[in-house]
Amino acid sequence: MSKSDGPKLVTALFSFKGKNNDELCFKKGDIITITQTDDGGWWEGTLNEKTGWFPSNYVKEYKAPGTSLQSFSFSDSDSGSTSAKMSPEKSSPDSPIHQTLNRDIVLKDIVDSERANVAELQGLVNNFLQPLEAANVIKKEEYKQLIGNFHEVLETHQRLLANLDSALSQGPEARVGNIFLTLAPKLKSIHTTYCNCHPQAVCILDRYRDELNDFMERSGAISPGILVLTTGLSKPFRRLDKYSAMLQELERHTEKNNPDRGDTQRSVSVYRDIADRCAAIRKQRELALQILTSGIKGWEGEELNVLGDIIHVGPVILVSGVERRDRYFVLFPTTLLVLSISARMSSFVYEGKLPLTGINVVALEQSEEIKNAFEISGPMIESITVVCPSREERQHWIELLSQEQIAIRASNLSRSPTSISHSSSQNSKLQAAGAEHSSSPGNKAPWSLASFRPAPPIYALKTFGKPDAVDSCRSTKTCNERQFEDDAIILRVIEGYCLSANARFTVHSAGGCRKLLKP
């Protein structure tokens, strides 16, 4: 469809309700402006400022009754009312020529700002980050934590700039929205990784504030030098926040029949979601670092870092009847920590912990009283109803808890063959020790982990100076077999206790899991 032909219009033969966010919804009789036609049976069009895909067999070409389509394109003021009926969409006060010019201006602004962004990132690398690595102001490992995947961020934005420069030379046919949409998965991946590492970089900046400030100023940064470094390292996610607004402005100046309109419109929401996701990740990591570094009131036992890395942390509400209490869940590889906020909102307070091996997690159905909730239950705890801020957050918690439980089971299974072999070996040793003990009571075997088991030879001790020695010897084999079976059962109980000792829900008071709900 050439531009000289004007916009192609179709009318809906049937109503259509799109199931995906890139599909168009319309009713029978609606008139749609076509943006793209595809041989696969789906077309893209615009209706009421919304652009999306729909089945091509749901529409037919629109022609006004008693006249051709071309007559409407050149109708005078007398036919204005008729042409208004031709399309329900409000016509822009700007002509298509002005709209195209405005789009070119917006596109040039996007390209220029991206060029400035890349230049700033490249300047930080060349002038400060590379010299900092060679200067040994901080340790190599800390330098890696400081910059994260900054070089990968730079390379991806250089690629984006090259694609935008190429599109700029194409004029009105430039598919800018498509460029942003195509690069969105890569940008999301590298920015998610960068934002996940950035809070750790902030800790390093704070720890070596004076040393880094002196280095930056010696390297030519304006005073205070530490501010230049801090600003430069935060540039990637500050830039990410701007893409949605820029693309929205580009969409506003894109004609309704422009083939790139749909991709541009979808890019707006995609980049808004990416920016929101990265902001949430940064907040998560900052909260996790605060928990690890500031300490927890009431926490007893080993250091928190012994539990491993924090996988996820977030606010929840624990419900018991009509009672609701605000809490924070902190997920470690094998433990779920439950915290509250102090009365002065200045620190975290320990409320309890739930070893993942001893709990079951089940999503609860939505109800008027409780929404976005799941239930935690187990053989040694009372059921806990957990309410999350959103349905997505609930699903995220359930998936994470299930994944970690599966990982724990897989780890235990990988050790099972060794454990079985070890148990068999110990059983053989016990039999040998029993024979030794019955023949040489003076010999005492050295203590080992197998000492937890009841010693099978106890029945054979009756042979020493006892009148029923003959009967005992006759029944030794039967007794030993029965005892070995009993020993195996006892051993499994002991091993199960040792493995699941952490499966008990530990809290400060004897109130059990009710302490999680205390005011």
From TrEMBL:
GO MF term set: guanyl-nucleotide exchange factor activity
Family matches, as Gene3D superfamilies: Dbl homology (DH) domain (1.20.900.10), Pleckstrin-homology domain (PH domain)/Phosphotyrosine-binding domain (PTB) (2.30.29.30), SH3 Domains (2.30.30.40)
Annotated DH domain residues: 102-281
Pfam families: PH, RhoGEF, SH3_2
Highest taxon, organism lineage: Eukaryota
Residues in SH3 domain copies: 5-64
UniProt keywords, alphabetically: Cell projection, Guanine-nucleotide releasing factor, SH3 domain
Disordered, as annotated region: 73-98, 417-447
Example GO BP: vesicle-mediated transport
SUPFAM superfamilies on file: DBL homology domain (DH-domain), PH domain-like, SH3-domain
Keyword Transcription: no
Alphabetized InterPro entries for the sequence: DBL_dom_sf (IPR035899), DH_dom (IPR000219), PH-like_dom_sf (IPR011993), PH_Cool_Pix (IPR046376), PH_domain (IPR001849), SH3-like_dom_sf (IPR036028), SH3_domain (IPR001452)
Name under which the protein is recorded: Rho guanine nucleotide exchange factor 7
Biased composition (Low complexity): 73-83, 417-428
Main location: other
Domain PH, chain residue ranges per copy: 309-406
Example of a GO cellular component annotation carried by this entry: cytoplasm
Compartments it resides in: Cell projection, Lamellipodium
